Amino acid sequence: MNLFNGLMIPLFGTTLGSAMVFFMKDKLNPKLEKILLGFASGVMMAASIWSLLIPAIDMAEEQGKIAWLPATVGFLLGMLFLLILDSVIPHLHLGTEKPEGIKAKLKKTTMMIFAVTLHNIPEGMAVGVTFAGAIAQNTGITMAGAFALAIGIAIQNFPEGAIISMPLKTEGMSKFKAFWYGTLSGVVEPIGAYITILLINSVVPLLPYLLAFAAGAMIYVVVEELIPESQNGEHSNASTIGVAIGFVIMMILDIALG
Description:
Layout: H1 3-18, H2 30-62, H3 68-88, H4 108-136, H5 143-170, H6 175-200, H7 207-231, H8 236-257
Helix pairs in contact: 1-4, 1-5, 1-6, 2-3, 2-5, 2-7, 2-8, 3-7, 4-5, 4-6, 4-7, 5-6, 5-8
């Protein structure tokens, strides 16, 4: 598989998930939705550790740096970056009526799409930074490991695609339009990944910081959005089971393929 295919794998997962709008009822089963949100959280947590933070620490050691320093700085900057975006971009989380970010006269459906797009940004960065590491060589990151992360992100994008397209349909959109907007919310991932690769090719020594940056951005999404949404209301145990399944699957993918 070439680089282009690798970058497109996560979008493929989002597209398949969004296509569920053609086959499912008007609403996702609440218990299933909790499991899927938990699953996405588990995948992102495991990816942040095995695909991003551990390679960042190992790479820093090989470069003769203080092992924990790039991981710490990058992680905190990634959290700060998403915090700023979260505070600026107008968006609306699932199951809430109060928009976040700068006040703007936008449709509810538009702000729901922005919410999903917002947390797809760090996923695209994560895929891009791992592929950049594999391309640079001598970084400890293999191409197989980069594809493992892309596949893991695609797996968790499948439920995310369904979770965004189904509510859009219940808000009055046609099935095709809901599918199209659900898919578009994932387009930011390959674009973000490609931009990240272009930037990193000229600053390989900063790769440990950028790996940790992507990890911090992803963990922000998990803590700020996915976990609260999955634990709100009934069936919170279902989301916990989803976290465990998602975490283990991503861990196995990374260790087996990386």
